[in-house]
Each structure stands twice: as C-alpha cells, then as structure tokens.
Amino acid sequence: MRIHYNLRDKNAAEKTSIFLVVRHFGKNLRYSTGHSISPTLWDVRRNRPKSGQLPHVRVALNQLEEKAEKALMDAGNLSQPEFKALMDKITGKVEDSGGKTPYLIQFIREYLEEKNQGGVKSLGTLLVNFSAGTNYSQWGRIDWSRVKKDIRFDAIDWNWHRKFYNYCVAQGLQAGYVKQVFRLLSLILNASRPTHHNNQINKAKGWADIKNGDVRHTPIALTLDEVNKLAALELAGEDAKARDLFLIGVYSGQRWSDFSTIQPNQIRDGKVYFVQKKKKNRAVIPLDLWRGLFPETLGEILGRYGNASPTLPTCRTDIYFNERVQFLCRRAGIIDQVEVFDTSGGDFKIIYLEKWQKVRSHTARRTFATLCRRAEMSLPAIARFTGHKSTDQLKKYIGIGEDELQHAAEREAEAARQRMLSKAI
Prior knowledge:
By secondary structure, this protein is α+β, with helices and mostly antiparallel strands. The protein has 3 domains: 93 residues, no CATH class; 113 residues; 184 residues, Intergrase catalytic core (hpI Integrase, Chain A), CATH 1.10.443. The protein contains 15 helices and 11 strands. The relative contact order is 0.08.
C-alpha cells in the first residue's frame, strides 16, 4: 500500500484541488481532500505545501493520510466508489448513510470530480453563494475550506424554493436563465434519488414555472453623457475588458450573445456583419457609426483586441460581466434615481433605485435603440441595425422617460391643432 498526494492540474494558473492517491491491491484509488492550492506553492517531492506555506493544509493532509492508512489496513480489495464511501465515512464528510451524502452541494462536488460540465458548475457556484453567503464568480475559484454550509436534500421544500428564487432575482438573473437553473436542479435531484434521498419536491407542479419576474420597470437606457462618463474611466485588466464589451454592445445594438462573440471574419468593408444567434436575423453595423459622439468608435475598440470581442476569465461570463458593469457604472457616477414598479406578493408599490443597479448586458442594446430614437431616427431604420423584424418588437427597447413621452405628445397635439387651423382658414 502506498499513499501520496497529487494535484488535479499541476499546470493550473490558479488554485487546483489536492487529491489523496492510494496504490491498493494493484489499483490507483483517488479521493478529494477538499483542499486546493496554487501549483507554485506545492512541493512535488514532499507531496505537501512548500515550507512555511499553508500550515493548516499541511496538518490536514497529515491527519487524512493517517486515517486512510488505518482504514485500509483492514480493508480488502476496494473499487473506486467503495474507497470513496469508506473515506467519506471515516472523515465524517457525510453521515453514516451507506456512503451516500444527504447534502446537495457535496453531491455536486462528487459529480464534478467525475464529469466536467459547465452548466452543473454554474449551478453549483450559485448554490454555494446562496447557502454560504459568498460571492464566487466560478466553480474553480471556490475556497472550500471557507464554505461551512451545505443544503440537505430533505430540506428542499417550497419555502426553500421561494428563498432561492428570490436570491436569483436579486442577483439580476433573467427569468429564462432562472428557469434553466431550476430545471437543471430538478435533474440533479432526480439523479441523486433514491440512494441519497427520497425528496420528490421537484416533481410537484410549478417547480420550474418561473414567470418573467415580479418587478416591472421602464426599460433602462443610458444617456449620451452617461455613456461618455463610462468610456472616460481610466481602467486596466478585466475591468477595462468589461467596460469595452459594454461599449461594443452600445455601439452595435446587438444582444449579449452576439456582441460578446465578434470574430475577425465578421469585419469587412468598414462594417461588422451579424447573423443573430437568437433569431437568426441579419444586421450590419458601420464601424464608425458613432464617430465624434464618443471617444472611440466601434472599430477602434474591436481593433484593440484583434478585431474581436475581448474575453473574460469565467465560465459564466454574462453573470460576471453584469456584476462588473454595475460596479463601473456606479464608479462613473451613473446614480440618477429610476422608478421601479414592484408587484411582488400581489401588492403594487413604486420603489426607486439608483440607475447603475438596473444596468445589465441588455442595457447596451436598449441604449443603442434609445440614442438612435432620440436622434429622431425612424423605427424602421433602427430596426435595420438591431435586426428586429417589426417595429413593435423594437419599441420595448426604447427607454424614453415619461417626461419625454409627455413632451412628444404635446408637440404632436400642437402640430395637429396647426393643421386643423390651416384647413379652417
């Protein structure tokens, strides 16, 4: 029997998991220690953190090795699942339930040790943040030594469903994505039943019937001055990329799925060509459409990244992007009050938020359409750029405030009065 430790990815740029590896009856058995470390801090020869680094991890690994050695002295020929169940039991990771964890997040961790699925990672990260009150942007960055709370399968009921749904809404997640979250969670509950639990709450009617949200508001769009404030921020690194991505959305008028994935082959003849991923509509945007109104044109920003959209370092770039853009908008002073109509709980009330709090990736598209309309461009012309098939679809993207709508109505009424007077004469 030989016991040692390996890193999951010895070439990882950031932290990577530490695995206990046992050579037992001719088999290599692996077990996740629950600890992670940067490869630069790992002593490959000693199979421990380098001298003076992470002493608490060193102690934990020594204790785990001792427990594994004692347990395996009396164990026969084990399969990988049997070895894992044994280690779970002796470390107290799970209750004595035949090696089957009654905890949701722990089940997801075990699942992802075998399969690398981005959707499950995103769900797991969301559940960790919800349960532990953390704010991790992706699964690979979670420090498991600081995650002290998990979710029991048998505690998932309609009250938990409501709390988790409200959390998702508070994070600014769109209704369509929240519906996907609950559908994927339902699949996880199905996959873990009945050996890990007997909870069938996800089979009840309405589990994934997520509405378009309980809060309605006038579409949020930035003004010309606000876009310039954002563009003028002196930024570097990932914040500069997030800001530039938002400006690409503002200058192109496309959806997140389109403006965040521009490639060099889409640019020719001074224009960027889109076949929109959602509706398969076509749109063509001149690279210098906004020349003179903003510090840089669409073409100049894309050129800085090799005629492509900048990339962000996370598996759910849309969530990370929304968080960073909100922060940057607040930093740029985009703090005017906006009116929000709240109908949650069946009651109607008006609340006021600072504008940056409602900014999302779709705000860029709305800003494009709104700026075009304020420049008195016709709806059919704007739709030509945004890819809308009808102007009725386009109208919901135009964030014109009540004062502007009132003034426009008064101007039209005055024009109608003048026409009637001229006919009377």
